[in-house]
């Protein structure tokens, strides 16, 4: 059929911009990044990432609409959004994931259903020392170093916070098994010291990062309180005290002392020295618990301790960081751990524990 003359007067349809599919991809990547960052809130920077993800989501929506017109503005906006997504949000998420790896074995962990648990972060400010006692760190000039320091101290604070219920759980086990009062008293004193450690670590994290993050709820702990309790026994208590106390607290004490000696900031050095002294005390408490379990339980406890000693290298390796965001020299100057130092101290700690355990047995 021949076209009518009227058809010549109709405007030709605009060609669809090739940027439309790309803009839609950026849009959905932004949405996924937002959801991931919002759900994985174990780190403060995951929450910062969620805010940036939200902004990127809005901009990518604008890019989608603008690019549908096929104009140069759509091309520019799409490129801008893609650049923001790649340069800002993704590195923050990756950085937070890196910093979620413990820098050294932390003492008596809160173990629920066989796994170590830490509280997620929530916005607050209630876990701080008194205003005149809160440590105020000297800020490095580098923004990257401040970010790393804030993340490391947030992780340390969450670990110290988790040790509080861990020692409370220990005190209940000791009472249930008829332990001497000195051991029960030591467990309660250790829990109070861990509260002080957590407060100081959160204060340092806020000093570096500027935001008052607190430990949030521990739903796994709430679930464990509602579940039927497991009957404590001397074998389990001895093995846990050897692993998390003698090794974990002992290595944590050595790490804190080594970092205190290398820290350039006197405030950081003083904080780490205080933590080191308390962690060494907690390690000695664990040795006292092991000795009592051995005396009360005899042969079965002895065999269990020998078996646990064979697995200490596995626990040590699992707790070591795989990468370091700062050079060893800068990390030490800031009072932060690095993989080489953690590996050296943990190897020495395991060797010392095995030697002392052999003498005890």
Strand residues, percent: under 5%
**What's the overall geometry?**
globular
Radius of gyration: 27 Å
What series of H and E elements makes up the topology?
HHHEEEHHEHHHHHHH
What average pLDDT do the residues reach?
Answer: 79
By DSSP, the count of extended strands is 4
Measure the end-to-end span: 102 Å
| Percentage of residues assigned to helices | over 70%
Return the CATH class of the largest domain. Mainly Alpha
Low-confidence stretches: 37-47, 89-105
Structural class: mainly alpha
CATH architecture identity of the largest domain: Up-down Bundle
Order of neighbouring strands in the sheet with most strands: 1-2
CATH topology of the largest domain: Ferritin
Overall number of structural domains? 2
Biggest sheet character: 2 strands, antiparallel
Helical run tally: 12
Give a structural overview.
The protein is about 70% helix and about 5% strand. It folds into 2 domains: about 15-100; about 125-360, Ferritin (Up-down Bundle). Strand 1 (about 110) and strand 2 form a beta hairpin. The chain contains 12 helices and 4 strands; from the N terminus they run αααβββααβααααααα. The strands form 2 sheets. A two-stranded antiparallel ribbon has the order 1-2. The protein is mostly helical and about 350 residues long. Helix 7 (about 235-260) packs across helix 9. The protein has helices spanning about 20-40, 45-65, 70-100, 145-175, 180-210, 220-225, 235-260, 265-295, 300-310, 310-320, 330-335, 340-360, and strands spanning about 110, 115, 120-125, 215.
Which key features would you list for this structure?
single chain; 2 domains; 361 residues; two-stranded antiparallel sheet; mainly alpha; Ferritin; 70% helix
């Amino acid at each position: 059929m021949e076209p009518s003359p009227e058809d010549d007067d109709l405007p030709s349809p605009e060609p669809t911009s090739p940027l439309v599919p790309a803009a839609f991809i950026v849009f959905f990547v932004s949405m996924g990044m937002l959801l991931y960052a919002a759900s994985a809130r174990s780190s403060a920077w995951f929450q910062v990432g969620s805010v940036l993800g939200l902004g990127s989501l809005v901009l990518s929506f604008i890019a989608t609409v603008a690019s549908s017109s096929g104009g140069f503005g759509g091309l520019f906006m799409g490129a801008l959004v893609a650049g923001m997504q790649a340069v800002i949000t993704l590195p923050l998420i990756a950085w937070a994931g890196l910093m979620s790896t413990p820098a050294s074995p932390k003492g008596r962990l809160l173990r629920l259903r066989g796994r170590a648990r830490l509280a997620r972060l929530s916005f607050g400010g209630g876990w701080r020392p008194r205003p005149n006692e809160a440590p105020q760190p000297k800020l490095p000039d580098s923004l990257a170093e401040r970010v790393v320091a804030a993340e490391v101290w947030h992780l340390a604070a969450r670990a110290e916070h988790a040790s509080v219920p861990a020692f409370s759980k220990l005190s209940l086990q000791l009472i249930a098994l008829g332990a001497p009062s000195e051991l029960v008293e030591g467990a309660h004193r250790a829990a109070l010291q861990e509260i002080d450690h957590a407060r100081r670590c959160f204060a340092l994290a806020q000093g570096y990062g500027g935001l008052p993050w607190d430990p949030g709820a521990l739903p796994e702990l709430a679930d464990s309180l509602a579940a039927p309790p497991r009957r404590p026994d001397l074998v389990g208590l001895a093995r846990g005290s050897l692993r998390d106390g003698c090794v974990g607290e002992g290595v944590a004490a050595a790490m804190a002392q080594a970092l205190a000696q290398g820290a350039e900031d006197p405030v950081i050095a003083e904080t780490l020295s205080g933590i080191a002294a308390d962690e060494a005390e907690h390690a000695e408490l664990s040795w006292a618990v092991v000795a009592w379990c051995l005396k009360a339980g005899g042969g079965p406890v002895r065999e269990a301790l020998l078996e646990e000693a064979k697995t200490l290298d596995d626990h040590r390796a699992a707790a070591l960081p795989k990468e370091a965001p700062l050079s060893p020299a800068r990390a030490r100057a800031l009072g932060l751990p690095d993989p080489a130092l953690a590996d050296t101290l943990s190897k020495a700690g395991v060797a010392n524990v095995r030697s002392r355990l052999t003498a005890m047995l």
